[in-house]
Specification:
CATH class of the largest domain: Alpha Beta
Bound molecules: adenosine-5'-diphosphate
Number of helices: 17
Distance between the termini: 13 Å
Helix content: 25-40%
Shape: globular
Number of strands: 17
CATH architecture of the largest domain: 3-Layer(aba) Sandwich
Radius of gyration: 23 Å
Largest sheet: 9 strands, mixed
CATH topology of the largest domain: Rossmann fold
Amino acid sequence: MYIVQIASECAPVIKAGGLGDVVYGLSQELEAQGHTVELILPKYDCMRYDNIWGLHDAYRELSVPWNGAAVQCSVYCGWVHGRLCFFIETHDIAHSFNRGRVYGESDDPMRFALFSKAAMEFLLQSNKRPDILHCHDWQTGLIPVMLYEMYQYYGMDHLRACYTIHNFKHQGIAGPEILAATGLNRPDYYYQPDKLRDNHNNAINFMKGGIVYANNVNTVSPHHAWEARFSEIGCGLQATLEQHQGKFGGILNGINYDMWSPQEDTHITAPYCAEDLTGKALCKKALRERLLMRDCEKPIVCFIGRLDQQKGVHLVHHSIYWSLSQRAQFVLLGSATESGINDMFWREKHHLNDNPDVHLELGFNEELAHMIYAGADIIVVPSNYEPCGLTQVISLKYGNVPVVRGVGGLINTVFDWDYDENLPEEERNGFVFFQSDSSGLESGLQRAIDLWYKNQPKFQQLQSQGMAYDYSWKDPAKKYIEVYDHIRA
Ligand code: ADP
C-alpha cells in the first residue's frame, strides 16, 4: 500500500509533543511491515535541520491557487532517520512558516489551511496518487474536505482519507475567509450543521470537517474514544462523533523503541535492562550531577510534559511539595505556553533554587528528557484528560514507575499494583488514582514512595514488570493497516 502522512510535526525534526513521535513512529513501522510511506510537512524555519539527510529541492515551482490568485511554493525532499519527507516552503507575504515557532500564532488556521491546500496541490501536480492520505489533528482537518469536495474530480477519486485526532481541545476555528482562500467558497453550503459549521459558534471548524469527510476517524486510545463520544472531553464534537460513530474508534499509540530504549539510548550515561538495573543507578547519579542535586538514598519523582491545564498543572505543582514532604526528590521538565502558568513555575523555580532535592527545568530539552526517564524512579502524570499519553509509556520502558490519573490512554496503559482486579500481580505496572484533587494524587504517589522505601525487591519487581510491556508500534500499525484496507475496499 502507498500511504502519505500529512501532519504539522514529525520527530525529531519538528516536535512540540506526542504528535511528532506518533507521526514518525507509525510511519517507520508501516514501512517495516512492507508499505510505502511518504510524509508531507511544512518547511518551518525552526526545524532541526541537522536531523534531515540529503535535503534537496524536489518540486521548485508549485503554484498553489489561493484567495483567487496563487501562492508560489517550493517543495524540498529529504530523509528524517530513513523516512522520506517532503517539506513545503510557502512564499506567501505572511511568511507563514518562518515565525520561529510551530503554533500559537493568531493566524494559525490560515497558515495550516495554506499548508493543507499546498499539500493537495503538490500531490495533484506531481502526479502522486497514494492509496491512503493519513491526516493528523485540526491542522490537516481540511484535507479530507478538499479531497471529497474538489480533488476527487481532478483524478484523485480513488484516494481514501484516514483522520487521527490527537487532541480534541484544539479544533481550528475560523471564519468564512478560509473558504474563500482555499477555493472551497460556498459559505451557505459549508456553514450547514452537518458540514463544517462549529457545533456552538457561527464559525468553520477544521476538526469537524475532518470527522465529517474522512473515510475513517480515530483517536489515540480506546478509552479516550469513549470519553470523546460520551463526555465533555469531546469539546463540543460529541454529537458529530455520534452521527459518525460507524467510522470512529480508538487505536492506542505505540512508541518507537529505537528512540526510547535504555539498552540503546545514546543520551544516557549507562545502558541497562530489566534483568540488571545497575546502569539505572549510574543514570540516577548522573542526573543528580547534571542538575546539581544531592546524592542520597531517596527516590526521584519526576514530571515531563507541557505545563498546561490538560496536564493537571495544579497537581503537578502539588506533587513537587508533597514529594519533598515524603522524603523524595523531584525533577520537573516542562514548558508552558500560557504566561500565567509560566510565571508560576518560574516563581517556584526561584523559590526552590537552593533546595538540593529539587530541580525545575523550564523549557523543551529532548536530551535532558532522556536523562530524566533513565534517572528517575517514579513519574507523575496527573492529567485532567489524556488522549493517549506517551510519557508514562516511555517511562515504563525505562523502569520509571508511573503514577497516573485514570483517564484516557493512561487507563489503557497503566495497571494498578494494589487494586487492578483484572490482572494478576505479575502483570501490574504502576499506580492509578482517579480524583483530580490533591488527596487523589497523594493516594497514588504515597503508595509508590512507600513501596520504594519499605520494599525495594517489590519495587524492583514492579519496575521489571513495566519494562517487560511491549508498547511498540507493531500492533497499532497492524490496526491502522486494517483500517486502511477497510476504507479502500
Ligand atoms: P502531548 O499531550 O504533549 O502530546 P504526550 O505525553 O503524548 O503529550 O507526548 C509528550 C512527548 O513530548 C514525549 O515524547 C515527551 O518526552 C516530550 N516532551 C514533553 N515536554 C517536553 C519537554 N519540556 N522537553 C522535552 N521533551 C518533552
